[in-house]
Write a structure and sequence with these properties.
Elements: E1 12-21, H1 45-66, E2 68-77, H2 87-96
Parallel strand pairs: 1-2
Bound molecules: iron/sulfur cluster (SF4).
């Protein structure tokens, strides 16, 4: 299939929302909680930052490919995200990207 070439500046903006579960650990035990008792390994700070960089690159590629502007946001959650060591560090990194 022939690729469509889009000319001119991008004018269409799209929100893109990411919900990122940094940890499944939690200090509470809510009855309605869907987190199970299994505790999968968590990504390290450097791994999370690397993935954030990868997502940013993917967005940049999409913007070029489809001639659009993306307005991304990330919601860091869990579990209890405040139990994730280095939370502020990854938030600061995401804000820079
Ligand atoms: S993860 Fe949320 S819903 Fe589950 S026990 Fe913790 S606070 Fe409650």
């Amino acid at each position: 299939m022939k690729k469509q070439i889009v000319a001119g500046p991008a004018t269409r903006t799209f929100d893109f929302f990411i919900q990122w579960h940094l940890t499944e650990r939690c200090n509470l035990r809510c009855r309605h909680c869907y987190q199970n008792s299994k505790k999968p390994a968590e990504m390290s700070n450097s791994e999370v930052k690397q993935e954030i960089d990868g997502v940013r690159e993917m967005f940049t590629d999409w913007e070029k490919e489809y001639n659009i502007i993306l307005s991304p946001s990330i919601n860091f959650t869990g579990g209890e995200p405040f139990l994730y060591e280095g939370l502020w560090d990854v938030i600061a990194h995401a804000r820079r990207r």
